[in-house]
User: What shape does this take?
Amino acid sequence: MAEKTTDVPLEKALERIETLVGEMESGKLPLEEILSRFEEGSKLVKLCQKKLEAAEKRIEIILREAGAPAGSEPFEADRE
Assistant: This one.
């Protein structure tokens, strides 16, 4: 990947992770290339986690400033 990992938008990072996983699962790469892709993917996952945490904090600030009631429950994607 030509871009610095920290400069990659979240959506592109996720697309790249999907590509890397597909390449690693293909069974066509030598071990060294798999390890290289795994390392790149690990960095991208960490980047995505940081970006999502930052977005969550921004949302909390926006809600607080908008007067959301104290004790509002955080969003949980697994809730039904």
Remarks:
- The two ends are 38 Å apart (CA to CA).
- Residues 5-65 form a domain with the Helix Hairpins fold (CATH 1.10.287.1040).
- The chain has a mean pLDDT of 87.
